[in-house]
Amino acid sequence: MNKLKIELNTLEDTTLMGKKLWPLFPKRCLIFLQGDLGAGKTTLVRSLLNAAGHQSKVKSPTYTLVEEYNINHQIVFHFDFYRINDPEELEFMGIRDYLDTDAICFIEWAELGQPLLPAADFILNLKAHAEKRILTITNNTDKSLCLNWKNKDLLL
Ligand SMILES: Nc1ncnc2c1ncn2[C@@H]1O[C@H](COP(=O)(O)OP(=O)(O)OP(=O)(O)O)[C@@H](O)[C@H]1O
Ligand SMILES: [Mg+2]
Hints:
Blueprint: E1 2-8, H1 11-21, E2 29-34, H2 41-52, E3 66-71, E4 74-80, H3 88-93, H4 95-99, E5 103-108, E6 122-129, E7 132-139, E8 146-149, E9 152-155
Parallel strand pairs: 2-5, 2-6, 4-5
Antiparallel strand pairs: 1-7, 3-4, 6-7, 8-9
Helix pairs in contact: 1-2
This protein binds adenosine-5'-triphosphate and magnesium ion.
């Protein structure tokens, strides 16, 4: 497991982080986004999808539970389990079928879906301090990665 802690000082930094992170994710992986309400989870997913080439809106899936994207043949599911009252609701929505798809899955509030979910390949944890965000990236895959951030090569 590798961990990296990075300061995102502005929204522009979050946009840039989307550009740097997106190419590192395998075509099929599970990514949890952690952090309080308003920490910036959806904003980071938006940056990642924009970096992938998605130009239209990225809505928060708070009410729909999941939003689906097909970006140049890459399927992406963006979940938000904040409104889940019982993890069984995930069975009803067919979570297993989603997770069995060749797709990148982003999940906000994954903790509310436990114990139904498998372990994440990556965890993106955000902490807010006014406009600043502290992003901690955990790489749980067995492959180490290199993240170039502001002209430094960081090992992840
Ligand atoms: N550096 C920054 N990076 C990301 N977001 C920022 C930053 N500075 C300010 N913000 C603002 O913080 C807010 C983050 O909201 P966002 O919906 O992304 O949070 P969230 O973690 O998804 O919350 P929720 O748990 O309600 O889904 C946005 O209004 C965004 O503009
Ligand atoms: Mg959100």
